[in-house]
Design goal:
about 210 residues; Growth Hormone, Chain: A; about 0% strand; mainly alpha; 8 helices
């Protein structure tokens, strides 16, 4: 899920006009830049992404509060996320190489809804040091915490979290720059499908 974040943010930043779909801190800052008149930033796309993210988190939060089984939370969240990324992929393919503003806003909002769901699921699961969409606090913990003061495996989880997002970003950017955003979205969908298979397989074994 963390790798997917890197991939979809590569798509949004490089193809949708400097808009974040997973990192709302950056998105709020970008909206401020755009309102101040800085060139190259889209108020509309950023607002669509922000609204989509909040809707995704709101709906997912309402649904998963009623689910006690953690594996079911994960499976349903991943499935919804896969459907939304698949929808964004369809819109991207239909729009063609030159994305019009309507397609940009639709794709930004759709992926942002998926990321809102992902954040709500990650919050519910509460795996330490794996928020899946931001690494600021993870990096802080890596260097600020005293050795031995954290739970066993914390440093490893933090390192894998940062590495996962970095790998997703570099691979996603390479695909966007050399093939196009649709191919990067296809990769994100494939990664989510793998995550569903892993979660389902784990659930079947227990």
């Amino acid at each position: 899920m963390t790798v997917v974040t890197g991939v979809v943010d590569a798509v949004s930043i490089l193809s949708l006009g400097r808009v974040f779909v997973a990192n709302m801190t950056g998105n709020v800052v970008f909206i401020g830049f755009a309102l101040a008149g800085a060139p190259g930033f889209s108020v509309a796309a950023s607002l669509f992404a922000l609204a989509g993210f909040l809707i995704g988190a709101l709906v997912a939060g309402a649904v998963i509060r009623r689910i006690a089984d953690r594996r079911l939370v994960l499976l349903r969240g991943l499935t919804a996320e896969l459907c939304l990324v698949g929808l964004a992929l369809i819109v991207s393919l239909a729009a063609g190489p030159g994305l019009a503003s309507g397609a940009v806003n639709t794709i930004a909002a759709t992926i942002a809804i998926a990321m809102g769901i992902q954040n709500a699921v990650a919050r519910k699961l509460a795996v330490p040091d794996l928020t899946t969409t931001v690494v600021t606090l993870t990096l802080t913990g890596l260097v600020a915490d005293r050795p031995g003061a954290t739970s066993p495996g914390a440093a490893t989880r933090r390192a894998f979290s940062v590495a996962g997002m970095f790998c997703g970003a570099i691979v996603g950017a390479a695909i966007v720059l050399n093939a196009g955003p649709s191919q990067a979205l296809a990769l994100a969908a494939g990664l989510l499908l793998c995550a569903i298979a892993l979660a389902f397989g784990r659930a079947s074994l227990t």
